[in-house]
Write a structure and sequence with these properties.
single chain, 5-stranded antiparallel β-sheet
Length: about 140
């Protein structure tokens, strides 16, 4: 059976009904802007807590699936949220607060780093609440 090109990890620990799977960054990760939701800053590996549906054991190589809606949500947060905040800031400062166009543009530009700080907070919240919930789909026999 051929291995999929991504979403593969090694089981490094088992606790109760969960496997802790260490995943290395792949070539696909290097170009992905959503990697911050999977990997800690600068780390080449991350660990996912995955329900051990396949009775995997320590050292087993498994493949897993991250639900498409989580990938889409990640995309929306990372790409669309900063743009939304940029535009919303301009509209608020230009029309609601009635600042000049130049000041509204400046406020919009200043809002970009703030949106990235907000994204970092959301990222930590996702990790803390376990909202990225991969599912084990295959165990590879060596």
């Amino acid at each position: 059976m051929d291995e999929p090109s991504d979403d593969i990890g090694i089981v490094i620990d088992i606790k109760n009904e969960f496997a802790f799977v260490e995943v290395e960054k792949t070539q696909n990760c290097s170009n992905c802007k959503m990697k911050s939701l999977c990997f800690n800053k600068g780390n080449e590996k991350t660990i996912f807590k995955i329900e051990n549906r396949l009775n995997a054991e320590i050292g087993d190589k498994i493949s897993f699936l991250i639900e498409p809606q989580i990938r889409i949500l990640s995309f929306a947060l990372i790409y669309l949220l900063p743009i939304f905040i940029l535009i919303a800031t301009y509209i608020i400062f230009r029309f609601a607060i009635k600042l000049s166009e130049n000041l509204a543009i400046l406020a919009s530009i200043i809002s970009l780093p703030i949106s990235f700080i907000f994204l970092k907070y959301i990222d930590k919240m996702f990790a803390k609440k376990g909202l990225i919930n991969p599912k084990m789909i295959n165990k590879f026999e060596e």
